[in-house]
Each structure stands twice: as structure tokens, then as C-alpha cells.
Design a protein that fits this description.
Layout (H helix, E strand, L loop, with lengths): L2 E8 L5 E7 L3 H10 L2 E8 L3 H9 L13 H16 L4 H11 L4 H14 L4 H6 L7 H13 L2 H58 L5 H16 L2 H17 L2 H13 L4 H21 L4 H11 L3 H15 L5 H6 L7 H10 L4 H8 L7 H13 L2 H57 L1
Antiparallel strand pairs: 1-2, 1-3
Length: about 450
């Protein structure tokens, strides 16, 4: 008889359960687990994954697909499914209609798989949980909560609003980064052209006259020689640096240090921290409002935070709740980052001379403001924690928008000053020896 590994939440205590169960089919395994009083969050058959994957590839209507589902496509699908459910269409009919509308790809394949699972007797959440590349744990748990409460259309509407807000915030941040990225790329290209094509021509003129060059001109010529000989290193440097960071992040302590540096980095660190806090607050509030148990909601929020400091924070808050404590106290207590040598090395690299001193003065700054802790405390006392978390997310969304606009406005004069300084340096360095030559000849 096949053996199934499962993860579930104990409905009585809220604890996370990991165990195995034997059953003839997956549907019977799910029924057995539910009879034990557990809410299934993950279920997979041992020694049958490859066969199941091969069988799914042979199903009609599927096409070859690589990667996951774009968040934009999933958001649009969720909104459309919410509208169809509000109109009263059966869930299976709604999914088939939306599956026919999708372009060939991962989402279409997943929707066809979900339809097959539902026709086989599975619930919507159970069917979606078998397509993790399309529907993550947050998505499946909210659907499961909607099914349990008999308000699937409400949950779908809430989920679509949550995803749309997240998409809007992501677009604002990405849009703010486009302008400086384009300007810097064009500036680097122009400066490389000058160094490779223009400066060597002037160097020939200076060599013909055999005059002594000013220090500024010599520095410019040395830079030009390096660019001419090692131009291929210019695009290789950022890629190499990224590979080094990825290698460091393979170690848990190294990843923790990099994530701490990102949170406290000059200029952009505050934007990253507020963005994570906004997303985490909205995720947790949406899950709690949908009826997901607090421990499962915290685990999902931890997985979607995208930063190891917040992952450790939410894990400690979850452990504290298991011990019978509230959220606000451990949220404040564990929000102070520990000392990390990798984070200090990154500070030293990016801010030579004063990086280590800046890190030592800033590393103990909490990642969660007192405002958030106080609002969470009030929400727990009043029984409206989800509402308070929504307000925290709205507040941080506004701060992220304002900070993004401010950084964009700040980047424009900084880039102008940088380009003006670079061009001015080149012009002065090239014309100083020319003026000297003209003076000597006259």
C-alpha cells in the first residue's frame, strides 16, 4: 500500500504536524488525515513522484512549460475567478472557462490539473496544493480557509485585492529604479567610448610632442589604457560580484549577514525594510482575516518575507505564541539584529574607511518600529489584529511611495553631478597639456 508524507495543522491546538499515513489512494489519505482532526497543508506520495510527473505530462491539453507563473497572470486569474464566483458559477465550470482563456504555459497546465483533481473528488485547496509552482502556500491556505468558512467568493476577492496591492507596490519600486539604471548604463557606455576611442588619439599627439604631462592627464591616460586592455572586465565585475554574494548566501550565516546589510544599507536599506514590513503585515493580516490559524499564518508570512532577519523574527514570535505569549512582546524583543561579521565586511567594502564604524553604530536598530508593536498590541487587546495589520501595511505603503519618489528626485541631481564631474575631469585633463603645447609653440 502506498505511503504518503503529509504536513498538517492540528485544528484543536494549532500545532504543525509532520507524519506519514498509508492509504490506497491520495484522496483516501486526505480523508484519513482529516478524520484525525488535522488540516492538510502538504501531501505527497513516496516513491511515486516521478511516475506521477510523467503521467501528468501525458495528459491532453498540456504544453511544455519552464519556470513558474508570473505574478501578474496569477493576479488577473484570481480577480477573474472572484468575479465568476460572485456571479454564482460552479467552481469547476469557472476553472474550465478560465483555463480555456489562458495562453499555453504553466498556469494553463496547472488549471487543467486542478480541474482533473476536482473531478476526482478533491477540494479546490487540495487540488491547488498539488501545483506548487502556480499556487503557493499562502494562496492554498487562504482558499482552504474560504472553503472551511463557506465564503470562498469573499476570500477570492480579498486575495485578489491583496495581490493587486502587492503588484502596485512592486511596480512603483521597479519604476523608480528604471531611470537611474538607464542613465548609469548610458553614462558608462559613453565614458567607455571616450576612453577607448578618444583618449588614445590625444595620447598619440602628446607622445609626438614629447612633453611632460600633468598628473591629471596621466591619470586619465592610465585609466584609458586599463579600459582598452581590460574592457571585458567592466560587464564581468557586477556578474562576478553577484556570484560571490550567491556563494556567501549558500551558508546560513553568510546569507544572514547579507540580508542584514541590505536592511541597513545606505539610501536603499530603509526602502527595502519598509517594503518587507508592508508586505509581511498585509500577508499576515490577510491570512488572519481569512480564518487561517495564527501559527500557520506566521509560518507562511515567514516564508514570503524574503529576508532571513524577518524569517528568524517570525519564527521566534511563533515559538513564543506556542509557549502562551502574545505577539507584541516577542515582536519587540526579537526585532533587534545581532552582530554579524559578514554584514560588517559588506559595510566596510561599500563604505571604505567608515563602513565598520557606521555598522557598529547602526546594527542594533530594531527592524520593527515601536509604532508597529503598539498597533499590534492594541489589535490583540481589541480582537481586531487583522484590521491593525492592514493599517500598518497601508502606512508603510505610503511611506514606501514617498521614499521612492524622494529617492528618484535625489538621484537626478546626483547623476547630473556625477556625469558633469566625469566629463569635466576628461575635458580639463585633455586640454591642460594642449594649452601648454600652444603656449610653448607661441
Amino acid at each position: 500500500m502506498p505511503t504518503f508524507q503529509f504536513e498538517a495543522i492540528d485544528a484543536a491546538t494549532g500545532k504543525e504536524i509532520r507524519d506519514k499515513v498509508e492509504a490506497p489512494t491520495e484522496a483516501e489519505a486526505q480523508a484519513t488525515i482529516r478524520a484525525m482532526g488535522y488540516m492538510v497543508t502538504k501531501l505527497k506520495a513516496q516513491k511515486q513522484q516521478q511516475a506521477a510527473a510523467a503521467a501528468s505530462k501525458r495528459k491532453p491539453g498540456r504544453t511544455f512549460a519552464i519556470g513558474g507563473v508570473k505574478s501578474r497572470d496569477l493576479t488577473l486569474f484570481t480577480r477573474q475567478l472572484s468575479i465568476l464566483q460572485d456571479a454564482g458559477l460552479p467552481i469547476l465550470r469557472s476553472l474550465k472557462v478560465l483555463a480555456e482563456m489562458q495562453k499555453p504555459g504553466r498556469l494553463k497546465n496547472s488549471l487543467l490539473d486542478v480541474c482533473d483533481e476536482i473531478e476526482g473528488g478533491a477540494t479546490l485547496s487540495e487540488a491547488m496544493s498539488k501545483s506548487p509552482k502556480a499556487f503557493d502556500r499562502l494562496y492554498c491556505n487562504m482558499i482552504r480557509a474560504g472553503e472551511a468558512g463557506g465564503a470562498l467568493e469573499v476570500i477570492l476577492r480579498r486575495l485578489s485585492e491583496f495581490m493587486e496591492r502587492a503588484q502596485s507596490l512592486k511596480r512603483k519600486v521597479k519604476g523608480a529604479m528604471v531611470y537611474p539604471a538607464v542613465v548609469v548604463s548610458v553614462a558608462v557606455g559613453i565614458l567607455c567610448f571616450i576612453m577607448i576611442k578618444i583618449v588614445p588619439q590625444f595620447k598619440k599627439i602628446f607622445d609626438d610632442f614629447g612633453s611632460t604631462l600633468p598628473p591629471m592627464t596621466q591619470i586619465l591616460i592610465d585609466i584609458s589604457n586599463w579600459v582598452v586592455n581590460y574592457w571585458y572586465l567592466i560587464p564581468a565585475i557586477p556578474f562576478g560580484f553577484r556570484l560571490i554574494i550567491k556563494g556567501i548566501c549558500l551558508i546560513s550565516y553568510g546569507r544572514f549577514g547579507w540580508d542584514l546589510f541590505v536592511l541597513k544599507a545606505p539610501i536603499f536599506g530603509q526602502l527595502v525594510e519598509k517594503n518587507i514590513m508592508s508586505r509581511s503585515s498585509r500577508t499576515l493580516g490577510t491570512l488572519l482575516a481569512s480564518g487561517v490559524p495564527i501559527l500557520e499564518a506566521l509560518n507562511i508570512t515567514k516564508e514570503t518575507s524574503g529576508n532571513m532577519m524577518f524569517e528568524k523574527l517570525f519564527q521566534k514570535v511563533s515559538d513564543s505564541i506556542r509557549d502562551g505569549n502574545a505577539i507584541a512582546k516577542p515582536l519587540k524583543e526579537f526585532s533587534v539584529p545581532p552582530f554579524n561579521i559578514v554584514a560588517m565586511l559588506f559595510w566596510t567594502l561599500f563604505c571604505p574607511g567608515i563602513g565598520a564604524l557606521l555598522y557598529l553604530t547602526k546594527y542594533k536598530t530594531p527592524v520593527v518600529d515601536d509604532l508597529v508593536v503598539n498597533m499590534v498590541d492594541v489589535g490583540e487587546e481589541s480582537g481586531e489584529l487583522d484590521t491593525m495589520l492592514y493599517k500598518v501595511a497601508d502606512t508603510y505603503d505610503e511611506e514606501v511611495a514617498v521614499l521612492t519618489e524622494s529617492l528618484t528626485s535625489l538621484m537626478e541631481p546626483l547623476l547630473i553631478v556625477f556625469l558633469g564631474g566625469a566629463v569635466g575631469f576628461i575635458v580639463i585633463a585633455l586640454f591642460m597639456p594642449l594649452i601648454k603645447l600652444i603656449t610653448d609653440l607661441s
